Amino acid sequence: MASFNIVVLPGDGIGPEVAAAGVQALKTIGEVFGHSFNFEEKRIGGIAIDTDNNPYPEDTDRACLAADAVLLGAVGGPKWDLGKMRPEQGLLAVRKSLGLFANLRPMDVKASQVHRSPLRAEVVQGADLLIVRELTGGLYFGKQTRTETTATDECVYTVAEVERVARVAFDAARKRRNKVTSVDKANVIETSRLWRETVIRLHKEEYSDVELEHALVDSMAMHLVTRPTTFDVIVTENMFGDILSDLASVLPGSIGLLGSASLGATGKGLYEPIHGSAPDIAGKDLANPVGTLKSVAMMLRFSLNLTQEADALDAAIDAVVESGFVTRDIGGTASGSAVSKAISDKIRETALTAA
Fold first, then answer.
1. What are the binding residues for NAD(+)?
2. H or E stretch covering 151
3. Has 311 been annotated as catalytic?
4. What are the binding positions for NAD(+) in this chain (predicted)?
5. What is the CATH number of the domain that holds 318?
């Protein structure tokens, strides 16, 4: 029996609800496959500002550094919009502390999901892509200044930062369909010119077997909604990746369906759905847990090296979604907790059948 220590950061809004779904799934995996998951809950985001006057308290940081993996719900909300401290600062802080420089956001549109997409079936059916977003550089981590009449945000990238995230993208492409699209704004921005030059050199030196193409971020936004099936792995800088991954999230019908993994050099990761805290539906059991459960599957695969268990969770998610037992954001009537329970039940049912 393997034992793992998981830190849970429920956060704000619907965060506690979807985080609870993730914990339930891990407990089910432990029950079925004979593993032990030890959970430690800590504060982050707005709730931590209220209780600790710090969006990322020191005891939260200590726990995350000691854990095998971290599960995050969501942070933010209108309550803290005008404050000097923002909940999102907690998210940036945990990424920086754990050295999580690559954010992986997979998106696919299965045949059973096509009717939920806002795009025509012939455009979106079969889309299967992975966005690799650089996570600790760029505008989000640059120096900021503000006066009454001006504001500045500094965007800085180094060759080393570009190389390490590009390697993640090229390595992922070798396991998928062997194609990388690097997105930048090299016709205008100097950091993008550095980005493109570095990716080209790395490709030539180490990854010439992988197909490489380049796209400007503005045209890429158009291509994602006009020909999404032509992309495999997309790699880009922090802000562009944030925007493009949210755009891609609507292709299968709801941002609530997609998870993410934030990884560094050590294998430890932060796992979270890509949606926000949705305060308008918090506490109503309406939140779609699928994005969190897909994130948990990525946790099992990338940080805990439990491939069979990850496959079992992914299969259970797909089976329940394909059955139509879904939350209202994708046309269903089920509550979030009911969908979460159905997925756990499917894991048990499949295990019993296999036995």
1. 276-288
2. strand 151-153
3. no
4. 276-288
5. 3.40.718.10
**Same domain (yes/no): 52, 147:** no
3-class secondary structure, 128: strand
Percentage helix, strand, coil for the chain under 3-state DSSP, each rounded to 5: 50, 20, 30
Verify whether residue 246 is a known catalytic residue.
yes
What is the residue range of 90's domain?
Answer: 1-101+264-355
> Exactly one of 52, 108, 171, 246 is catalytic; which is it?
246
Both 135 and 70 in one domain: the answer is: no
Indicate if 215 and 308 belong to the same structural domain. no
Residue 218 annotated in active site: yes
Range list of H helices, 125-189: 159-175
Structural tokens at position 10: 């429920």
- Out of 254, 285, 313, a domain closes at 254
Q: Which residues are annotated as a binding site for substrate?
A: 95, 105, 133, 218
Active-site residue among 12, 68, 242, 329? 242
User: Is 185 marked active-site?
Assistant: yes
Whether residues 126 and 236 share a domain: the answer is: yes
> In this structure, what DSSP letter does residue 204 have?
H
Active-site option among 59, 81, 209, 218? 218
* pLDDT of 192 above 80: yes
- Could you read off the pLDDT of 110-124 as tens digits, one per residue? 887 888 899 999 999
Instruction: Specify whether 59 is located in the same domain as 18.
Output: yes
Mean pLDDT within 145-171: 97
